Structures are given as C-alpha cells and as structure tokens.
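Re-run with default settings, no changes from the original entry. Doing this only to confirm the output is reproducible before filing.
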Amino acid sequence: VQLQASGGGSVQTGGSLRLSCAASGLSSFSIYTVGWFRSAPGREREFVSTMSYRDRKIYYSQSVEGRFTISRDNAKNMVHLQMNSLKPEDTGVYFCALSGRSRARDVYEYDYWGQGTQVTVSS
C-alpha cells in the first residue's frame, strides 16, 4: 500500500491550499477511513480531520473546524484536504493515512501512512 501526498507549499496568512493524497496497492479504497494529520517541530503528530468509510461521518480538530474541508473520491482512490484562511500555526508536514476502523482520530488507529507534504504559512 502506498499513499502519495501532494499539494503542499508556501502561502501567506489567509491563503489557501488543497492537499491531495493518492492511494495505490489496495483491493478496495472505499473500505478505509481516511485521515489527515500534521506535525511541526517540537510537537507531536496531531489529528486534523477524518472521514469514515462507513457513513462518511466527518470530524475536524477544533483548530481547523470551519476552515478546512476533507473529501474523498473512491472511484479515483483519492482524498483531499481543502485548507482556507490559513494561519501561521497551520505550518507543518501534513500526512494522509488510512484506517480499517469506522472511526479513527488517533495516530495509533491508522494502518497506512503517506510520506507527508510540507505546508508553510507566513505572517
């Protein structure tokens, strides 16, 4: 299984980025819950957003609620994260991940991880 994240970059405060994650090597992408996490220097990897495979229930961390939108395209084995109104504290490496659980918001609940894409937001 491979997850390839892309779409990161450098933007100014208030800008937008759309992250994408392409999954391959899976018999069925649709049976996995998808998630996005991020890490920054000196900080543990933290949950950003997730969408359940079962009912497409979505969760966001409080810090991104209302600014970020997660989506998935099962036909293309893709998951996206639209990030608007970016803030400097959103800076970090963003990782996509897949979980076999119907609900997953902790790092240990995810089975597969991508390599990460860097997001830098300057003030």
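The first strand starts at residue 2 and ends at 6. DSSP finds no helices and eleven strands in the chain.
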